[in-house]
């Protein structure tokens, strides 16, 4: 995954933000919408594309396009940098392969400790009973 090539493939669009803000909201386009076409990307290999399609299936459109938007800040430049950071964190999480867990045998000391605690509990419970005369 080459970040410089991916940045060149990103499409940005500035849109007017929604919500409260008075007259400034009506005339300033500070919201940034990022679109990334996973199918047409040349910066991502084919096996990485398949992995991303599987892991990010809920975030992709039917045409395998990822759409992110940001209107957190009043500045368009800051919103653009925020959405780029968010995009790369999503892509990195999607490409992360978890380490395969191999089952191991429990150590002898752990087994002894568990059995000793069971014996102690057993003795405690035996002492709670009424004595037999």
Count of runs of 4 or more consecutive helical residues: 5
Overall CATH class = Alpha Beta
- Taken as a percent bin, the fraction of beta residues is 5-15%
Low-confidence stretches: none
Order of helices and strands: HEHEHEHH
Lateral strand order in the biggest sheet: 1-2-3
Mean pLDDT: 90
- Whole-number count of domains: 1
Question: What's the CATH topology name?
Answer: Double Stranded RNA Binding Domain
Q: Please, could you describe this protein's structure?
A:
The longest helix is centred in the C-terminal third of the chain and has 21 residues, at 108-128. With 133 residues, this protein is α+β, with helices and mostly antiparallel strands. Strands 1-2-3 form a three-stranded antiparallel sheet, with helices on one face. The chain has helices at 3-9, 23-27, 46-55, 76-95, 108-128, and strands spanning 11-15, 31-37, 65-70. Helix content is 47%, strand content 14%. The protein has a single domain (1-133), classed as Double Stranded RNA Binding Domain (2-Layer Sandwich).
Summarize the SSE layout with pairings:
Layout: H1 3-9, E1 11-15, H2 23-27, E2 31-37, H3 46-55, E3 65-70, H4 76-95, H5 108-128
Antiparallel strand pairs: 1-2, 2-3
